[in-house]
Amino acid sequence: xxxxxxxxxxxxxxxxxxxxxxxxxxxxxxxxxxxxxxxxxxxxxxxxxxxxxxxxxxxxxxxxxxxxxxxxxxxxxxxxxxxxxxxxxxxxxxxxxxxxxxxxxxxxxxxxxxxxxxxxxxxxxxxxxxxxxxxxxxxxxxxxxxxxxxxxxxxxxxxxxxxxxxxxxxxxxxxxxxxxxxxxxxxxxxxxxxxxxxxxxxxx
Length: 204
Fold this sequence. Notes:
Helices cover 76% and strands 0% of the residues. By secondary structure, it is mostly helical. Helix 3 runs antiparallel to helix 4, helix 4 (92-109) runs parallel beside helix 8 and helix 7 packs antiparallel against helix 8. It starts with a helix and ends with a helix. It is found in: Membrane. Belongs to the SFT2 family. May be involved in fusion of retrograde transport vesicles derived from an endocytic compartment with the Golgi complex.
């Protein structure tokens, strides 16, 4: 500690001595007051939200570039996941990981087009809240089962819930798509119900 204090004192003394020499030399050649050296200031640190809000200041080409890059990454992950679809029972954790991350990349790519805040507000709108919340929760649980719990059954279950929630969320952007799907389900279930009940009565 004493050596460090001595070095600090010596450096400050040399700095003061050098400053006096500069001032005397300046007074010899000029009557104007000497300008002080500018103090370098570090730029203020940007918070995470400031970085996200900067997405709204991107140019049109930057938005398109970011959109296609992130979408391309998502498609790569989804292609890898689809290559494991035939052996999903054996590679459930890997399939769930690549499938979930690919979907997240594809969803996040739209933030470059509509903006991060707009996308978040859209997810939590009244007609999309259930689907959006279910998708986010099932995605988290899928990654939890794949990376930490290492549960193949959990990966398959939550990946299926994730896919259903994502499809229901996407259908909310298509006019009357949910209503049409509900009507189709009612027609198909009404057609199959008597057939299944007849088969069940024959087997019993």
